[in-house]
Design goal:
Layout lengths: L13 H7 L10 E5 L5 H9 L7 E6 L3 H11 L6 E5 L2 H4 L7 E6 L5 H11 L3 E9 L11 H5 L3 H10 L5 H11 L4 E6 L3 E5 L8 H4 L3
Parallel strand pairs: 1-2, 1-4, 2-3, 4-5
Antiparallel strand pairs: 5-7, 6-7
Helix pairs in contact: 5-8
The chain binds S-adenosylmethionine.
Length: 212
Protein backbone atom coordinates (compact mmCIF):
# COMPACT_ATOMS: atom_id res chain seq x y z
CA UNK A 1 0.00 0.00 0.00
CA UNK A 2 1.23 3.55 -0.77
CA UNK A 3 1.56 5.30 2.57
CA UNK A 4 1.65 9.07 3.08
CA UNK A 5 4.70 9.76 5.25
CA UNK A 6 6.84 12.88 5.48
CA UNK A 7 9.18 11.74 8.28
CA UNK A 8 10.83 8.48 9.23
CA UNK A 9 11.59 8.23 12.92
CA UNK A 10 10.91 4.51 12.94
CA UNK A 11 12.52 2.28 10.31
CA UNK A 12 15.84 2.01 12.16
CA UNK A 13 13.97 0.24 15.01
CA UNK A 14 12.50 -2.56 12.91
CA UNK A 15 15.24 -5.14 13.47
CA UNK A 16 14.94 -4.81 17.26
CA UNK A 17 11.15 -4.64 17.24
CA UNK A 18 10.91 -7.89 15.25
CA UNK A 19 12.83 -9.60 18.05
CA UNK A 20 11.19 -7.88 21.04
CA UNK A 21 7.63 -8.23 19.76
CA UNK A 22 7.89 -11.72 18.22
CA UNK A 23 5.98 -13.13 21.23
CA UNK A 24 2.86 -11.17 20.18
CA UNK A 25 3.05 -11.71 16.41
CA UNK A 26 -0.21 -12.96 14.94
CA UNK A 27 -1.66 -13.81 18.35
CA UNK A 28 -5.35 -13.10 19.10
CA UNK A 29 -6.54 -10.38 21.51
CA UNK A 30 -3.22 -8.48 21.71
CA UNK A 31 -3.76 -4.89 22.86
CA UNK A 32 -1.13 -2.22 22.18
CA UNK A 33 -0.98 1.37 23.42
CA UNK A 34 1.01 4.01 21.53
CA UNK A 35 1.70 7.48 22.94
CA UNK A 36 2.74 9.65 20.00
CA UNK A 37 1.64 8.30 16.62
CA UNK A 38 2.19 11.24 14.24
CA UNK A 39 1.50 9.98 10.69
CA UNK A 40 1.23 6.36 11.83
CA UNK A 41 4.54 4.93 10.69
CA UNK A 42 5.05 2.84 13.84
CA UNK A 43 1.29 2.20 14.06
CA UNK A 44 1.03 0.76 10.55
CA UNK A 45 4.19 -1.32 10.98
CA UNK A 46 2.67 -2.87 14.13
CA UNK A 47 -0.62 -3.55 12.35
CA UNK A 48 1.16 -5.12 9.37
CA UNK A 49 3.67 -7.23 11.30
CA UNK A 50 2.56 -7.84 14.90
CA UNK A 51 -1.11 -7.02 15.44
CA UNK A 52 -2.12 -9.09 12.45
CA UNK A 53 -4.88 -11.11 14.10
CA UNK A 54 -8.37 -9.73 13.47
CA UNK A 55 -8.99 -9.53 17.24
CA UNK A 56 -5.84 -7.54 18.03
CA UNK A 57 -5.88 -3.75 18.23
CA UNK A 58 -3.94 -0.59 18.98
CA UNK A 59 -4.99 2.51 20.91
CA UNK A 60 -3.22 5.72 19.84
CA UNK A 61 -2.84 8.81 22.01
CA UNK A 62 -1.86 11.99 20.15
CA UNK A 63 -3.45 15.40 19.62
CA UNK A 64 -3.52 14.45 15.91
CA UNK A 65 -3.15 18.04 14.80
CA UNK A 66 -4.71 18.95 11.46
CA UNK A 67 -1.37 19.07 9.66
CA UNK A 68 -0.83 15.30 9.99
CA UNK A 69 -4.25 13.89 11.05
CA UNK A 70 -5.40 13.32 7.47
CA UNK A 71 -2.19 11.44 6.63
CA UNK A 72 -2.52 9.30 9.80
CA UNK A 73 -6.15 8.53 8.92
CA UNK A 74 -5.33 7.55 5.34
CA UNK A 75 -2.40 5.38 6.45
CA UNK A 76 -4.34 3.35 9.01
CA UNK A 77 -7.51 3.13 6.86
CA UNK A 78 -7.18 -0.61 6.05
CA UNK A 79 -7.27 -1.39 9.79
CA UNK A 80 -9.63 1.41 10.90
CA UNK A 81 -11.85 -0.97 12.91
CA UNK A 82 -8.87 -2.05 15.03
CA UNK A 83 -7.43 1.40 15.78
CA UNK A 84 -8.83 3.41 18.69
CA UNK A 85 -7.95 7.11 18.70
CA UNK A 86 -7.57 9.17 21.85
CA UNK A 87 -7.23 12.59 20.29
CA UNK A 88 -5.56 14.80 22.91
CA UNK A 89 -2.49 15.22 25.12
CA UNK A 90 -1.41 12.11 27.01
CA UNK A 91 -1.61 13.77 30.44
CA UNK A 92 -5.34 14.25 29.91
CA UNK A 93 -6.06 11.08 27.90
CA UNK A 94 -4.15 8.32 29.72
CA UNK A 95 -6.04 8.44 33.06
CA UNK A 96 -9.29 7.74 31.19
CA UNK A 97 -8.04 4.76 29.20
CA UNK A 98 -9.45 1.46 30.44
CA UNK A 99 -8.21 -2.11 30.41
CA UNK A 100 -4.77 -3.63 30.22
CA UNK A 101 -2.24 -3.69 27.40
CA UNK A 102 0.29 -6.26 26.23
CA UNK A 103 2.74 -3.55 25.24
CA UNK A 104 3.06 0.21 25.41
CA UNK A 105 5.19 2.47 23.18
CA UNK A 106 6.15 5.86 24.67
CA UNK A 107 7.03 8.27 21.84
CA UNK A 108 5.18 11.52 22.59
CA UNK A 109 6.52 14.65 24.27
CA UNK A 110 10.25 14.06 24.80
CA UNK A 111 10.78 16.50 27.68
CA UNK A 112 11.90 14.51 30.73
CA UNK A 113 8.95 15.34 32.96
CA UNK A 114 6.51 14.46 30.16
CA UNK A 115 8.27 11.13 29.54
CA UNK A 116 8.15 10.37 33.26
CA UNK A 117 4.45 11.26 33.37
CA UNK A 118 3.67 9.01 30.36
CA UNK A 119 5.57 6.15 31.98
CA UNK A 120 3.87 6.56 35.36
CA UNK A 121 0.40 6.88 33.85
CA UNK A 122 0.76 3.92 31.50
CA UNK A 123 2.56 1.45 33.83
CA UNK A 124 -0.65 0.46 35.71
CA UNK A 125 -2.27 -0.24 32.31
CA UNK A 126 0.49 -2.70 31.35
CA UNK A 127 -0.13 -6.41 32.00
CA UNK A 128 2.34 -8.32 34.17
CA UNK A 129 4.64 -9.85 31.52
CA UNK A 130 3.94 -6.97 29.12
CA UNK A 131 6.55 -4.74 27.48
CA UNK A 132 7.12 -1.01 27.87
CA UNK A 133 9.19 0.49 25.02
CA UNK A 134 10.72 3.92 25.37
CA UNK A 135 11.80 5.69 22.21
CA UNK A 136 14.77 8.06 22.28
CA UNK A 137 16.41 6.86 25.50
CA UNK A 138 19.62 8.50 24.27
CA UNK A 139 17.97 11.51 22.57
CA UNK A 140 19.79 14.85 22.79
CA UNK A 141 17.87 17.92 21.55
CA UNK A 142 19.24 19.21 18.25
CA UNK A 143 19.89 22.68 19.70
CA UNK A 144 22.30 21.25 22.29
CA UNK A 145 24.50 19.46 19.79
CA UNK A 146 23.66 19.78 16.06
CA UNK A 147 26.71 17.66 15.21
CA UNK A 148 25.06 14.55 16.72
CA UNK A 149 22.34 14.59 14.07
CA UNK A 150 25.00 14.49 11.35
CA UNK A 151 27.33 11.97 12.98
CA UNK A 152 25.84 9.94 15.82
CA UNK A 153 28.16 8.92 18.66
CA UNK A 154 26.85 7.24 21.81
CA UNK A 155 29.82 8.53 23.79
CA UNK A 156 29.11 12.12 22.75
CA UNK A 157 25.38 11.71 23.40
CA UNK A 158 26.03 10.39 26.92
CA UNK A 159 28.41 13.29 27.61
CA UNK A 160 25.73 15.79 26.52
CA UNK A 161 23.05 14.03 28.60
CA UNK A 162 25.32 14.31 31.64
CA UNK A 163 25.74 18.03 30.95
CA UNK A 164 22.03 18.68 30.24
CA UNK A 165 20.00 16.22 32.35
CA UNK A 166 16.91 18.44 32.50
CA UNK A 167 16.60 18.39 28.70
CA UNK A 168 17.09 14.70 27.91
CA UNK A 169 14.58 11.80 28.25
CA UNK A 170 17.20 9.43 29.70
CA UNK A 171 17.02 11.35 32.99
CA UNK A 172 13.32 10.51 33.36
CA UNK A 173 13.63 6.92 32.17
CA UNK A 174 16.50 6.18 34.57
CA UNK A 175 14.55 7.72 37.46
CA UNK A 176 11.48 5.66 36.59
CA UNK A 177 13.57 2.48 36.42
CA UNK A 178 15.20 3.19 39.78
CA UNK A 179 11.76 3.55 41.39
CA UNK A 180 10.75 0.22 39.81
CA UNK A 181 13.82 -1.72 40.91
CA UNK A 182 12.87 -5.39 41.19
CA UNK A 183 9.61 -4.86 39.30
CA UNK A 184 10.93 -5.14 35.76
CA UNK A 185 13.33 -7.09 33.59
CA UNK A 186 15.50 -5.27 31.07
CA UNK A 187 14.74 -6.63 27.59
CA UNK A 188 16.75 -4.26 25.43
CA UNK A 189 18.84 -1.14 25.76
CA UNK A 190 20.35 1.00 23.04
CA UNK A 191 18.92 4.14 21.47
CA UNK A 192 15.56 2.73 22.67
CA UNK A 193 14.98 0.97 25.98
CA UNK A 194 12.54 -1.88 26.65
CA UNK A 195 11.46 -3.49 29.90
CA UNK A 196 9.15 -6.35 30.82
CA UNK A 197 6.81 -5.84 33.78
CA UNK A 198 7.19 -8.29 36.65
CA UNK A 199 4.85 -8.63 39.63
CA UNK A 200 5.09 -5.82 42.19
CA UNK A 201 7.14 -7.16 45.15
CA UNK A 202 6.15 -4.11 47.24
CA UNK A 203 2.58 -5.32 47.65
CA UNK A 204 3.82 -7.85 50.22
CA UNK A 205 5.02 -5.08 52.58
CA UNK A 206 2.16 -3.35 54.36
CA UNK A 207 4.44 -0.59 55.69
CA UNK A 208 5.05 0.59 52.09
CA UNK A 209 1.40 1.33 51.47
CA UNK A 210 0.24 2.49 54.88
CA UNK A 211 1.63 4.76 57.58
CA UNK A 212 -0.67 3.47 60.31
C1 LIG B 1 8.13 11.50 17.08
S1 LIG B 1 6.45 11.69 16.74
C2 LIG B 1 5.85 10.02 16.81
C3 LIG B 1 6.36 9.19 15.71
C4 LIG B 1 5.67 7.88 15.51
N1 LIG B 1 5.63 7.05 16.71
C5 LIG B 1 6.39 7.15 14.40
O1 LIG B 1 7.17 6.24 14.70
O2 LIG B 1 6.23 7.52 13.25
C6 LIG B 1 5.81 12.36 18.25
C7 LIG B 1 4.32 12.52 18.28
O3 LIG B 1 3.96 12.74 19.64
C8 LIG B 1 2.93 13.67 19.68
N2 LIG B 1 2.93 14.27 21.02
C9 LIG B 1 3.73 15.24 21.52
N3 LIG B 1 3.40 15.52 22.80
C10 LIG B 1 2.38 14.66 23.11
C11 LIG B 1 1.60 14.45 24.27
N4 LIG B 1 1.81 15.15 25.41
N5 LIG B 1 0.63 13.53 24.23
C12 LIG B 1 0.41 12.79 23.11
N6 LIG B 1 1.12 12.96 21.99
C13 LIG B 1 2.09 13.88 21.98
C14 LIG B 1 3.24 14.64 18.55
O4 LIG B 1 2.04 15.32 18.17
C15 LIG B 1 3.77 13.70 17.48
O5 LIG B 1 2.73 13.28 16.66
Amino acid sequence: MAYQFTHDWFSHNIENWRRWLAQFEGKPHIRALEIGSYEGRSTTWLLEHVLTHETSCIECVDPFLDEYYSRFSANIAPWRQRVVLHRGWSGAMLPAIAGEFDFVYVDGDHRPFAVLSDAVLSWPRLKVGGLLIFDDYLFVPYEIDPELSVKWSQEQALAQITKHPALCPKTAIDGFLTALTGQYELVGQGYQLVIRKLADPGTALASLTSTA
